[in-house]
Every structure is written in structure tokens, then in C-alpha cells.
Amino acid sequence: MEKYELVKDIGSGNFGVARLMRNKETKELVAMKYIERGPKIDENVAREIINHRSLRHPNIIRFIEVVLTPTHLAIVMEYAAGGELFERICNAGRFSEDEARYFFQQLISGVSYCHTMQICHRDLKLENTLLDGSPAPRLKICDFGYSKSSLLHSRPKSTVGTPAYIAPEVFSRREYDGKMADVWSCGVTLYVMLVGAYPFEDQEDPKNFRKTINRIVNVQYKIPDYVHVSQECKQLLARVFVANPSRVGSITLFDLLKTTEYNAVPCIMSHYQRRNM
């Protein structure tokens, strides 16, 4: 640990504490996730390290190294100065379709790369998507604690993730396609960016998880009248949110990457550059 110095604490959770650290030699700021040695270092932590360190992509938080102390295991990662995408939406209320498309394309690019590497994330959500802090923010996927590699691990069948983002087949307690479950979570993320609310949550009773799950299983959602989005966007969401566990007819990441309406990053980048001049 001699190579890093503490700048400040930046978060905490069930895993332990996250701290902003500085490399004494290079002066690079890094995020360090501390996990207490003992029972908390389980197979999820091992998966997180093995899977995350194998990934190198502009839209994935860069894994740097693992450091051991007498009391903790610390995962050292790239620091995303822009914070969570969730915070940005909370501050804005909701995004324009152009802004949502800008971030959605980056999300799909990062997830598609994970799938190419045979890794499904299984906990994609706004809180696990960070921003690098640049004027035209680059999205960075983080937290691979629930991830699975089809090369190293069994096919997923456990119910993991955050209820509002979980695909219907994940609740079946049978084996499911983790990659298709990731696509569903990407669709939820797009909806929240556009609407500022979760698609399957009752806004009058948001903590009623049974009702949320029932709506997910039956694919009961709608886009409010006050939210104006293109027909292409509505069609895209309709192809992502498909109830059939085999997801016959639903859209794949390959389809999403080909969808020109949601892959038009250059013009949106120029929009950001103009807005930040």
C-alpha cells in the first residue's frame, strides 16, 4: 500500500469501503474498493477480479491491480470523476432522447464487448454506470461482482441483480441466458433515462417488490403521455421487453449495435461539444 496515499472516502456498501487514492509516483487518481479479509471474500469477489481484469474497453472501468493488506483485500480501479449516471438523471429529472441515445450507445458498446469476451454482467443499472468527468462524458461500466463467464462458470440460474432491472426469466430459478438478461437491463436503463422512472415500478407504491415483479413477468409498462420519444425508440423498447423466457423475437445486442437510430454518436458528440464550448 506504500505506493498509494489516501485522498478521501468516496462510498461504502455491503462490500466495505471505497476510497479515492493517489499513486505517489505517477500522481494518478484511482478508486480503491476495500473488502475485509474473511467471509466477505467469497466466490463473487473471486469472479469480480477474474472477470473484470480480463476486460479492456473504453466503456468499462479499467482494472488496475489487487492489493493485500493484513486486514483487507483492495481492488484498484480507474477513477471516474463524473460520478454515477444515476446521479446525473436525478439532477436532470430525465434526459432528452439525444442525450439518452448518447449514453445508451456507449452502454451497449461496453456490454457487447463483455459478451464477446463471454462474460455477462448480471447487475447492469444506472448506479453501476459511471462517467469520466469530461465535457462529453464517457460512460464506464463497473461492479462485476455478479458477473459470470461462460468459459469458467456454470450457466446462470440464481436470482441476482436489482429487482427493477431484472428480466422475467431470472425469476424462474431455472437456467437462463445471462446475455439476454443483460439486454433487458439495458432496456430498463434506456427507459429510466427517457422517463425518469422505472418501467415496471408502481410510482404510487415503489417499494412493493411483489407488484414490480408481477409487472415485469407480464411486461406491463407504458411511456407516459408527457414524455415525447420517437417511434423508433418505442419500437426498440418493445423488442427489448419481451416476456417469453426464450425471448423469441426479442432484440439482441448485435441488432442494437446495427440500429442506426441509436448508434448516431458522432452527431450527438458534436452536440455535446457545442454545448460545452
Sum up the structure in keywords.
2 domains, 277 residues, three-stranded antiparallel β-sheet, 8 helices, five-stranded antiparallel β-sheet, ATP binding, Phosphorylase Kinase, domain 1, alpha+beta, Transferase(Phosphotransferase), domain 1, disordered C terminus
Structure notes:
InterPro entries: Kinase-like_dom_sf, Prot_kinase_dom, Protein_kinase_ATP_BS, Ser/Thr_kinase_AS. Keywords: ATP-binding, Kinase, Nucleotide-binding, Serine/threonine-protein kinase, Transferase. This protein is an alpha+beta fold and 277 residues long. It has two domains: 4-78, Phosphorylase Kinase, domain 1 (2-Layer Sandwich); 83-275, Orthogonal Bundle (Transferase(Phosphotransferase), domain 1), CATH 1.10.510. It has eight helices and ten strands. The protein has a five-stranded antiparallel beta sheet, with helices on one face. Strand 1 and strand 2 form a beta hairpin.
